[in-house]
Amino acid sequence: EAKRLGKGRYIFYNDDMKSTIVERAEIEQKLRTALENNEFELYFQPQFDILKNEIWGVEALIRWKSPTLGTVSPDKFIKIAEDSQKIVAIGKWVFEESCRFAKKLYMMGYYKHTVAVNISVIQLMQEDFNDFILDTIKKYDLSCKTIEIEITESVLMKSIDDVYEKLSILKDIGIRIALDDFGTGYSSLSYLKALPITTLKIDKSFIRDMENDLMTENLTSSIISLAHQLNLEVVAEGVENLGQFERIKKYKGNRIQGYYFAKPMPEEDIIPFIDKISGRI
Ligand code: C2E
Ligand code: MG
Ligand code: MG
Ligand code: MG
């Protein structure tokens, strides 16, 4: 099928594109009521502190079970939620749930565990973003140090001034700020120096390719030492095996996150997991 776009210009749709458009529309429509119907759940994936040999904390990862669409991956629906602004309400729910979980850990006697929360650029662009974050942390009576906000590089490139200022304020009061998926965007090194961040999360594509590609391994070790010179902590995400873990350890990464250590789990599983690792059971 060809569609006329104007004089002599045609665009051709194939079945793949058509199903993508239909799927998008369906997801967008079902997203409208997903929050009020309680279709979201947070999973938590532990991060392991290599030097201290203990759990550092967890990353909260959203899961959506739609009664009609089934399980939809965040890689699929977050973008759509951003385009429809739904991400603002969903993101608030994610942050509040993360704080509730952080409080639960604290009440169990895990005083030092941190909860890392993914934040979308659309959320950061809301005028009340900082107020919301601070109010929610206060509501649960948490220390700012128990929260790490994860943002992607593209976020900072897009809307630098406003976002930069908001993040600086949050960082100054002790909230940790991680640059997620590092290495997949376009940030220059001088730019990295100026960012209000505490943590660099190396993208899992580096970790995956490191073992079979010496250039990627060298690049990864260079990123880690560069980050340390900028006073940043380094997390390796997507660590799936011993070989990758040993390399990150050798190059002095601070934390690992990945299937090698643990998969993301629902709350009822993560609590016993932490208890077990901490030697409580
Ligand atoms: P991300 O923040 O980079 O999260 C890491 C992703 O890697 C997660 O995918 C996680 O399940 C996966 N992962 C963890 N360990 C391994 C491993 O060893 N190997 C491999 N191959 N993958 C691993 P997930 O949960 O599907 O989330 C995908 C992305 O969706 C996230 O990437 C993040 O960008 C976004 N996302 C997830 N939850 C939220 C949320 O609550 N809010 C926002 N704004 N975005 C979210
Ligand atoms: Mg993340
Ligand atoms: Mg990531
Ligand atoms: Mg990602």
Describe the structure.
With 281 residues, the protein is an alpha/beta fold. It has twelve helices and twelve strands. The chain has helices spanning 15-34, 74-83, 86-107, 121-124, 129-139, 153-158, 160-172, 189-194, 204-210, 214-229, 242-250, 267-277, and strands spanning 2-6, 9-12, 40-49, 54-66, 70-72, 114-118, 147-152, 176-182, 199-202, 233-237, 255-257, 265-266. It has an eight-stranded mixed barrel, surrounded by five helices. A two-stranded antiparallel sheet has the order 1-2. Helix 2 (74-83) packs across helix 3 (86-107) and helix 9 packs across helix 10 (214-229). It is globular, with a radius of gyration of 20 Å. It starts with a strand and ends with a helix. It binds ligand C2E and magnesium ion (MG) (3 copies). One magnesium ion (MG) is lined by residues 59, 118, 150, 180. This is Diguanylate cyclase (GGDEF)-like protein. Residues 24-278 form the EAL domain.
Task: Describe the structure in brief.
This protein has 281 residues and is α/β, with parallel strands linked by helices.
Give the proportion of residues in helices: 40-55%
Question: Distance between the terminal alpha carbons, to the nearest Å?
Answer: 63 Å
Largest sheet: number of strands, sense, barrel closure = 8 strands, mixed, barrel
- The total count of helices amounts to 12
Identify every distinct bound molecule in the structure, by name, code or SMILES.
Answer: ligand C2E, magnesium ion
Our estimate of the beta-strand percent is 15-25%
Q: What's the shape? A: globular
Q: State the secondary-structure class.
A: alpha/beta
